[in-house]
Amino acid sequence: MDSQIFKAVMSRWVTGISVVTTTYEGEVQGFTANSFASVSIDPLLISMSVAKSLYAGELIQKSKTFAINVLTSDQIEWGKLFAGMYKDRENRFENILYNTTTTGCPILPGVYAWMGCSVYQTVDVGASNLILGEVEEAGILDDGEPLAYFQRQWGTFKAIE
Length: 161
Ligand SMILES: Cc1cc2nc3c(=O)[nH]c(=O)nc-3n(C[C@H](O)[C@H](O)[C@H](O)COP(=O)(O)O)c2cc1C
Fold this sequence. Notes:
Blueprint (H helix, E strand, L loop, with lengths): L2 H9 L3 E2 L1 E7 L2 E7 L3 E4 L4 E7 L3 H9 L1 E6 L5 H6 L17 E2 L5 E2 L5 E13 L2 E13 L7 E3 L2 E3 L6
Antiparallel strand pairs: 1-11, 2-3, 2-6, 4-5, 5-10, 6-9, 7-8, 9-10, 11-12
The protein binds flavin mononucleotide.
């Protein structure tokens, strides 16, 4: 089947936006991801798909630790920054006063929610790795509106009855 129709269907699937962060030997890296999903309650597992081309993915495989940062709509600039949309920003963490998980993965200030995970399993799926993460710690921070992504546009959630 043609991948265009696959992409068109997936673009009609509304997602939240997370920034996945990791650390290895003192270096921190992060990237925007909307493939984050819940997998299991027992054990506590989440999944995400990471392109093999991503350097941050290599660090995750080395350190076996990462954090999920769930963004608010006010944090759209971080969504873009960590997607590599600002080519002049080489160090994506510059000027961001972040906290860390117990394993040292950045938790961005004021995020909607976060999770600290260890790599439970990695499934090789061609151009990407499907990573299952075991949730070791988590938190809920500021109030706000969630950042959403739909048909290549940034937005937020609107409740209906
Ligand atoms: C809305 C959105 C969602 C994304 N989700 C993912 C994802 O789930 N997995 C992934 O590997 N890349 C994802 N990306 C792309 C990465 O964020 C992007 O390739 C990366 O930050 C580029 O890093 P680089 O410039 O260091 O290669 C997403 C990008 C956007 C704009």
